[in-house]
Amino acid sequence: xxxxxxxxxxxxxxxxxxxxxxxxxxxxxxxxxxxxxxxxxxxxxxxxxxxxxxxxxxxxxxxxxxxxxxxxxxxxxxxxxxxxxxxxxxxxxxxxxxxxxxxxxxxxxxxxx
Length: 113
Known about the structure:
Blueprint: H1 16-36, E1 46-52, E2 59-68, E3 73-76, H2 79-82, E4 104-105, E5 111-112
Antiparallel strand pairs: 1-2, 2-3, 4-5
């Protein structure tokens, strides 16, 4: 445990309404792609999304969803977006740019990572 110091404030930029919406979209998209192509996606179990404000670099939402086939259940695993997947090589370089990400557009016109 470290004692806090004056002037060391932490300001979070997560937008809870956007966070909840992103969680739902990521979960729905993961469910849909597994259901639509079960054989082709038999190894797919994680979907991740990071939402940044492109003007400021502020982190607005971080979502991770995991599908457990044995339990036939989905879990919120947002921490994977930042720690486990190594896709991001940390999501921000110098606070405002993304490196090593693949960005695409799904059939509904929404942009996905």
